[in-house]
Amino acid sequence: MITPTDYQELLDYRRSVSRLYAGARGEAAGSPPDQAARSQRFRTERDALLKDHPQSPLPEADREHFSGLGYFDYDPALRFSLAVDRDVEPGTLEISLQDDGPLRLQRFGKVRFGIGDDRLELTLFWISGYGGGVFLPFKDGTSGRETYGGGRYLLDTIKHADLGAEDGRLILDFNYAYNPSCAYNPRWHCPLSPPENNLQARIAAGEKSYGG
After folding, report:
1. Strand pairing partners for 82?
2. In b/e form, how buried is each residue of 127-149, taking b as 16+ CB within 10 angstroms?
3. Does residue 101 have a pLDDT over 90?
4. How far apart are CA 91 and CA 105, in angstroms?
5. Burial class of residue 191, CB neighbours in 10 A (0-12, 13-18, 19+)
6. If exposure means fewest CB atoms within 10 Å of the residue's CB, which of 29, 45, 46, 49 is most exposed?
7. Whether the predicted pLDDT of 190 surpasses 60
């Protein structure tokens, strides 16, 4: 049962995540100008948040011995500034979540980019409901092997996972790809990547599988 204390702690956790992403965008005081250093600072601070915060998604039994998540090395080639193609087939996906009921995702755009010889595209979703938010889940050639089998998230602006924009173009930096909470603990139930965002290409960036 969620208590008033839990809600207050969750608010603090959300604020902490917001500060992390402000640093990733270079907006926080003391943010390194170098992208690789900025990413490393984000990872260090996120590890500390997962270890120490009472609302960490990690199981309590894991936190005492937690020494940090596994990540791929930073790769500057996997940071993109992309125009959003809004000429997409409209449609809404509905995902049933065990504790929260139906989650409705409205397709509103696509982004296209290249990794090596692969030409790739991902659908952007808007989470319907009060306030809404951009949501970008994906799977790739590492899923189920090097990374969580259900896929990872890159953007979830309701929870402050927002990498910003440059001159109206959306920033997608796969070095910040992260696991949904259900990858750490079965108590969580998360929306996973829809088939249209399942890529065959291997994207060796961001967070790896959680080993406990």
Report:
1. 170
2. beeeeebbbbbbbbbbbeeebbe
3. no
4. 8
5. buried
6. 29
7. yes
Please name the amino acid found at residue 93. L
Q: How is residue 205 written in tokens?
A: 């960036």
Q: Does the pLDDT of residue 1 top 60, yes or no?
A: no
Q: What would you report as the CA-atom Rg of the chain, rounded to the nearest whole angstrom?
A: 17
Which residue from 180, 189, 1, 191 is spatially nearest to 98, judged by alpha carbons? 189
pLDDT in tens, 160-180: 999 999 999 999 999 999 999
Q: Which amino acid is at 29?
A: A
d(CA 109, CA 69): 31
Backbone CA torsion sign across 54, 57, 58, 59? positive
Which of the four pLDDT bands, split at 50, 70 and 90, describes residue 100?
Answer: low
pTM of the model: 0.94
Report the interhelical angle of 4-24 vs 35-52 (nearest 10°): 170
Nearest to 199 by CA among 123, 137, 126, 120: 120
Where are the domains positioned within the chain? Answer: 4-197
97-147-86-158 Cα dihedral, nearest 10 degrees: 50
